[in-house]
Design a protein that fits this description.
Layout: E1 3-8, H1 17-30, E2 37-42, H2 53-59, H3 68-73, H4 75-86, E3 89-95, H5 103-112, E4 131-138, H6 153-164, E5 169-176, H7 179-182, H8 188-207
Parallel strand pairs: 1-2, 1-3, 3-4, 4-5
Helix pairs in contact: 1-8
Amino acid sequence: MSTLLVIESSPRGEQSISRNMTRRFLAEWRKTRDGARIIERDLMRTGLEFVNAPWLDAYFTPAEHHSAEMKTTLQLSDELVEEVLAADHIVIATPVYNYNVPAVLKAWIDHIVRKGITLGFDGRGLVTGKKATVLIASGGVYDERSPIRDRDLATHYLRLVLGVIGITDVTFVAGGGAKAVDLREISMEGFVDRLAPQLVRAAQVSEQG
C-alpha cells in the first residue's frame, strides 16, 4: 500500500491558495488509490520550534549518549523524520513570502535533514526511491518569460534541499500570480481550475512507478 505524506505550511486556512491546490491534487490522486495511506502534517498546528542550542547539543551527541532530556528535545524531529521515511511520495504545499518559503517550512526542513538518518556522513542523500510534488502559490510569476525569474528562490531552494536528502524525482506546480485571488480579480476556484491540468499530471506522475 502506497503512503503519501502531505506537508502544509500556509497560515491562511480555507483562504490558502496552496492548500486549495493540495485539495485538487488529492482529489485526483485518490481516484486510483483506494485504501492508500495519507499522512497529513500541518506545520501550523505542529508546534514546531526553530533549531536552538539544546537541539543542536542533542543533534551532535551520539544517540547512545543521549540523556532523557536530549531524547525529549529530538522527539518531534524524530517523528517528522519517520514520516518522511515512511512515505513513498511527499507533497509540499507552500506560499511564497519575500521570494522564499515561510519560516515554518524552513524549520521543518531543519528538523528532517539529519546526518546519519536522511543525509549520509559522506554527504549523500539517504532518502532514495521516493517522489515529491511541490505546490507553490506566489504573487509573482516566475515562468520562462518572466523578467523576475531569477527571484524564484523558493523553487531552487526546495529542489536543492530535496536533492540533498536523496529525492531527485520532483514535480513542481507553480501557482504564479496568486495575488489575483486576494484582489478578487479571479475566484479561488477559478485560479485552481487554471492549474488543474498541471495538478492532474502531477498526480499521474505520482502513480507511475
